[in-house]
Amino acid sequence: MEAEPAPEPGSTSFPSAVNGGKTLEECQTMIQRSLRTPVVKFLLKHLEQSGCGIGDRFIKAINCNKQIAGGYVRGEGILVCGNHMTMQDDVNQVVIHELIHAFDDCRAKNLDWSNCAHHACSEIRAGHLSGDCHYKRELLRGFVKIRGHEQDCVRRRVMKSVISNPYCSEAAAKDAMEAVWDVCYNDTQPFDRAP
Description:
The chain is of the alpha+beta class. It is built from 7 helices and 4 strands; from the N terminus they run E-H-H-E-E-E-H-H-H-H-H. Strands 1-2-4-3 form a 4-stranded mixed sheet. Helix 2 runs parallel beside helix 3 (88-107). The longest helix has 20 residues, at 88-107. GO terms for molecular function: metal ion binding; metalloendopeptidase activity. It comes from Pyrus ussuriensis x Pyrus communis. This is Mitochondrial inner membrane protease ATP23.
């Protein structure tokens, strides 16, 4: 998600929760629970098989000033914004999404997060494969559409993320997303097909 080199996304070191979010300790406990879910276990196994095993501190809770759920930072790992988490499913979703970015970073040794097309491709894959755009989640966000909701959601979320990349203007983000859409949307690795 983040361009390299990037600081921790909107992080602060205070331990308190904000607006009903979780404390760092509560979030870290939730991260540990998410490590036991089948999809997270599957992704961790495939990261290891790809030569990118992770350590105990690869996924950590932080407090974020920005309105984001978390991020992946090359060389640092996955950061989950505890003060923006409200339930276990939120944490699971962030961990799965960011593990797909970590997998992409591992398998594509030349992935350049400052390249709009590279960033867009990983966001397309993470949005499509993580379940971020499941119908139920979209309904809870207030987006109601019977047909084509998943691809609309992925496109919307890709644009939001890639526009936040300091190297990508809105026009560059849109062009990049459109250029790589078919290839990246249909790339379901390490899954056999989209979950």
